[in-house]
Amino acid sequence: MPLLLLPLGLIAMYFASSANDARAKGDFEEARTKNSLALSMIIGSVIFGIIT
Length: 52
What we know:
It is found in: Membrane. Its main location: membrane. Belongs to the CD225/Dispanin family. It holds the Pfam family CD225. InterPro entries: CD225/Dispanin_fam. The protein is mainly alpha-helical. It has one domain (2-51). Helix content is 83%, strand content 0%. The chain has helices at 6-24, 28-51. Helix 1 (6-24) runs antiparallel to helix 2 (28-51). The longest helix has 24 residues, at 28-51. The protein is elongated and about 40 Å long.
């Protein structure tokens, strides 16, 4: 069952990395958006893990 959470984790890592890149460029609004998406993926992964 842990492999079912892998896709959400990979997506979260992508958004977190994109947020870091945006922050480095000074685009704080984009960084905030990407961080929110990453957090949503992490929360979804945890909830899915608890359910299964």
